[in-house]
Write a structure and sequence with these properties.
heterodimer; A: alpha+beta; DNA polymerase, domain 1; 2 domains; 5 helices; 5 strands; globular; B: Aldehyde Oxidoreductase, domain 4; Aldehyde Oxidoreductase, domain 4; 3 domains; five-stranded mixed β-sheet; 25% strand
Chain lengths: 153, 714
């Protein structure tokens, strides 16, 4: 079976898996980082969002074979600076999560947005967050938390 | 899930009025007992554990699916015990009967546990105060409790609860402890951040899907596309060649009312199980005799036929039919709501280990550990003492995870392969297998006399949840889950003549409770039809309601607050409109005003103002959060396509064709809470039922066209 050396959160994990295994399962079941969630399995919900070299991707659609050797993967466990990222602090302040299952993905999308756009307007927030579903309906708080976080950064 | 109040009280053992705690162990003479010698933990009652070290543990008996029970339930204990939640550890109950009913459902947690848990906290506090007084040789009346310590008034003396827990353990538990005046509450009714939120934003919170047991294997269950088919043959040659696949076995999907065939692909990791399932070829044998109205077109045809005939009378004041026949001004309309899937982002899953020694351990995101305990014991034929239930957090549920067919699947697989196994449904299983909120019709009839509302009839038509799930509805009986919600006692509209009836339309499409249960169906018919009557009477829909509700002060307060906060009386410019609705469910009243506007691409929802009177509540911010969630889910239910069945199988399969609301579709939301000292009502569901009808009424006001069938084209 192929072996992949995945750099996840600046740590190299030696992953032995089939080349077509989507990254989400390598992260969850083989690297044992459970913060990244599996949702729809077809890039509809965004629960599995992680960063690949800083870009938000749906890890359920990314086979291990498509990840370059130098790629840096960041998951929800890897964004803290050092304890909590500004986005996470804003999420707590706004009391965003209800069940919280989608929030790792929401936060990863928000962190990626604020990296490239320090002060996004409403349309830019919606465009960046449209791929992340929340069945509990926390969207209004998510958008407010992103605005608050942008002021903290 | 609907939770019958009488049944609830019986489960808690609260039948004796004087002995109002009634939870096992609490009524014993000496209720304190050592838990483990190692920690010297003392259990004051099943919900409060105080260790000699000072560590205090409170038990949350209601699983948290996002509704906030992790905070709300222990707050009831902490308020009376005089501790703050950041001083204590909170653990989830395990289903044992000493915790009473542990089902999260029917918006019942706070309203059901309001008195028992406050009394449990107050009794423990009295015992600790008595122990401190004895230790100091003073009167208990001269001591008071605050922040986990007992103080002697007018002195610097204090002891921690841990220091006097041993002595307190020798006392009888007071049967009628003094409860705090709600005006003195420090936690209940106050804004407090939920302490479980940091884990939920850092990936540390543990959901069912995250369970990890040594030696565990993974299973993907392949279900019958037509739900009820049997297996003619299994070709598993390709599946077994998938690297990581360990086995392919025939299993059963045991639903509450029926068992059907299924196949499990067992693998070393989840991906291999999914891949193996794709490579599997199951030859399903049609079971034509088992499909009953299993196409939505057949079901609705039967339902519309039933709407032309009288139903079974549930309640009647006056003679409705006589009034209707002789009336000069009468209205009649039929309203339709579709089947809906719950579609939580975390699909159904369970991890089960049926062990060699005859014990069973479960890790699962389920709404009721007590129900899971008895279900697993019965299903596997083992005594309940040998079953251990570990409830994880739920990644959403909305009623679905109180229907534990997926848990039985994990039990069946583990007993067959003799290993711990995690069963994870895919989103396709979740959407296409059910159970669903039943589709229903409301046949509405109304009579006006001299411009005044006179008579009202709501005929509910469709499948009975209790009837299908529990086989619990006798023939020619009205389902009281729904007739209760439609009763005049519930809606409070003061019609001189009022009738509720029910026509059951059976289907083999699996059905179950869905957030706010039947209220989510029937709010649509009731509240749109009230608007129709108002327009016929040439009255403003708000004024029309206020007249009919003039003796129902909590309703009128809710509506007047809604009118104020939505600036109802100010006319809107052309191309904009608003609509209102009010509905009581789970002992709470909620009203909504939905604002819509015409755009080039159609109708847009601009804003929703919602008012809720849920009596006393624990955390106002959580009431708002739940109501926001109800607005979002209510709009989805009103505007997105429902579940349909063709060729006896579900047409939809994932979020691309069963759509839930996305971020950009979120309207501006304003939530207002009526503050009072009324008995607590539900919070997790009551905000949903008024949303669809308020939207339908707004669209009528915008377009002049009366929509009676969901989903609406928005």
């Amino acid at each position: 079976m192929p072996v992949f050396n995945l750099n996840i959160n600046n740590k190299v994990y030696k992953i032995t898996a089939e080349a077509d295994m989507p990254l989400v399962w390598a992260i969850r079941d083989l690297a044992n980082l459970k913060g990244t969630k599996f949702g729809c399995g077809m890039a509809q919900c965004g629960a599995c969002t992680v960063h690949l070299d800083g870009q938000p991707i749906r890890s359920c659609q990314m086979p291990l074979s498509a990840i370059s050797k130098k790629a840096k993967i960041t998951t929800i466990e890897g964004i803290a600076e050092p304890t909590l990222h500004a986005v996470q602090k804003a999420w707590i302040e706004e009391q965003v999560p209800q069940c919280g299952y989608c929030q790792s993905g929401q936060i990863m999308s928000a962190v990626a947005l604020l990296k490239t756009n320090k002060n996004p307007n409403d349309e830019e927030i919606l465009a960046a967050m449209e791929g992340n579903l929340c069945r509990c309906g926390t969207y209004q708080r998510i958008n407010q938390a992103i605005k608050n976080a942008s002021k903290m950064l | 899930m609907k939770n019958n109040r009488r049944e609830f009280i019986k489960n808690l053992g609260l039948t004796g009025i004087g002995l109002s705690i009634g939870i096992d162990g609490f009524s014993k003479n000496v209720a304190l007992k050592k838990l483990t010698p190692a920690t010297l933990a003392l259990e004051i009652n099943p919900f409060i554990i105080i260790e000699n070290t000072g560590k205090i543990t409170l038990v949350n008996s209601r699983p948290d699916m996002g509704q906030g029970s992790t905070q709300a339930v222990p707050s009831l204990l902490a308020e009376e015990l005089e501790v703050s939640l950041d001083q204590v550890s909170i653990i989830q109950s395990d289903g044992r009967s000493k915790y009473g009913s542990q089902q999260s459902g029917g918006s019942s947690s706070v309203r059901g546990l309001w008195m028992p848990l406050r009394q449990a906290g107050a009794a423990a506090k009295e015992m600790l105060i008595k122990a401190a007084a004895e230790k100091w040789g003073v009167n208990a009346a001269d001591c008071y409790a605050e922040a986990g310590k007992i103080f002697l008034k007018g002195s610097q003396k204090s002891v921690t609860y841990g220091e006097v827990a041993d002595l307190a353990s020798t006392y009888q538990v007071p049967k009628n402890p003094k409860l705090k005046d709600p005006k003195d509450f420090k936690i209940i009714g106050k804004y407090n951040k939920r302490l479980d939120v940091p884990d939920r934003v850092s990936g540390k919170a543990i959901y069912g899907i995250d369970a990890e047991i040594p030696g565990m294997v993974f299973a993907k269950v392949v279900h019958s596309p037509r739900i009820h088919d049997t297996i003619a043959s299994i070709d598993d040659a390709a599946a077994r060649k998938v690297v990581g696949v360990l086995d392919v076995i025939k299993i059963e999907r045991a639903m509450p009312h029926t068992k059907v065939d299924a196949v499990a692909v067992i693998a070393q990791n989840q991906w291999a199980a999914l891949k193996g399932a794709k490579a599997l070829n199951v030859n399903w044998k049609s079971e034509n005799g088992k499909y009953l109205n299993q196409n939505t077109s057949e079901y609705f045809e039967a339902a519309y036929a039933a709407a032309k005939k009288p139903g079974i009378r549930a309640e009647e004041k006056g003679d409705f039919d006589a009034h209707f026949e002789s009336a000069s001004t009468k209205l009649e309309a039929v309203y339709e709501t579709p089947f809906l899937a719950h579609a939580a982002i975390e699909s159904e899953n369970a991890t089960v280990h049926v062990k060699d020694d005859g014990t069973v351990e479960v890790w699962a995101p389920i709404q009721g550990p007590d129900g899971a305990l008895s279900q697993v014991a019965q299903y596997l034929g083992v005594p309940e003492e040998k079953v251990k239930i570990n409830v994880t957090l739920l990644g959403g549920s909305f009623g679905r995870k109180a229907y534990m067919d997926f848990l039985n699947e994990a039990c069946d697989i583990s007993r067959k392969i003799k290993k711990p196994v995690k069963v994870l449904w895919t989103k396709e299983d979740d959407i296409s297998q059910g159970p669903y909120r039943p589709a229903m019709l409301s046949r509405m009839q109304g009579v006006l006399e001299n411009g005044q509302a006179k008579a009202f009839h709501h005929q509910a038509i469709g499948e009975s949840i209790a009837g299908q799930v529990f086989n619990g509805l006798r023939p020619n009986t009205a389902d009281d889950w729904l007739s209760g919600e439609l009763s005049q006692e519930n809606h409070q509209y003061n019609f001189e003549v009022n009738k509720v009836s029910y026509s059951r339309v059976k289907t083999s499409i699996p059905v179950v409770w869905w957030r706010s249960v039947y209220a989510s169906n029937f709010g649509w018919g009731q509240e749109c039809f009230i608007d129709e009557m108002a327009h016929e009477a040439k009255k403003d829909p708000l004024e029309f309601r206020l007249e009919l509700l003039k003796n129902a002060s909590r309703f009128t307060k809710v509506l007047n607050l809604l009118a104020e906060k939505s600036d109802y009386k100010t006319p809107l410019p052309a191309g904009k409109a608003k609509g209102i609705a009010v509905f009581r469910s789970f002992d709470s009243i909620s009203a909504a005003c939905v604002f819509v506007s015409k755009t080039d691409s159609g109708i847009k929802i601009d804003k929703v103002v919602s008012v809720i009177d849920c009596g006393m509540f624990v955390n106002p911010d959580n009431v708002k959060a739940q109501t926001e969630g109800n607005i979002i889910m209510g709009i989805q239910a009103a505007t997105k396509g429902g579940i349909t069945f063709e060729n006896n199988q579900c047409v939809q399969s994932n979020y691309h064709d069963y759509q839930v609301l996305r971020n950009s579709e979120t309207p501006k939301m304003e939530i207002h809470i009526v503050e009072n000292y009324e008995r607590p009502g539900g919070v997790g569901e009551p905000g949903l039922p008024p949303i669809a009808p308020a939207l339908g009424n707004a669209i009528f006001n915008l377009t002049g066209k009366r929509e009676r069938k969901l989903p609406l084209g928005v």
